[in-house]
Amino acid sequence: MPNIKSAKKRMRSNEKKKQVNSFVAGSMKTAIKKFEKEVKAGNKEEATKNLNIAIQRIDKAMSSGLVHKNKAARLKSRLTKSKNAMQ
Questions:
Q1: Cβ-count burial of 51 within 10 angstroms (0-12 exposed, 13-18 middle, 19+ buried)?
Q2: CA quadruple 31, 32, 35, 40: dihedral positive or negative?
Q3: pTM higher than 0.90 for the full model?
Q4: pLDDT (tens digit, 9 = 90+) per residue, 40-53?
Q5: How many domains does the chain have?
Q6: How far apart are CA 12 and CA 85, in angstroms?
Q7: Residues 31/55, Cβ–Cβ less than 8 Å
Q8: How wide is the angle at C-alpha 11 spanned by C-alphas 6 and 14, nearest 5°?
């Protein structure tokens, strides 16, 4: 446990950031899984809706620095490719 005031504050702020980061990362992963589930089931309308949500969540994670921009582009490309292959 830190004794210095600034170190105590750093611990508090790190805990808050950790919670926000885990929420953003978790919601991104959940959105991707929901999309993949709809693709597997063959529901084109739901897959399209879930694709848009997944892309938004991926962009949010990228903008906050949780995911590298190349990984975000790769994920979006793969998801879009799988949606287009449904036809």
A1: buried
A2: negative
A3: no
A4: 999 999 999 999 99
A5: 1
A6: 47
A7: no
A8: 120
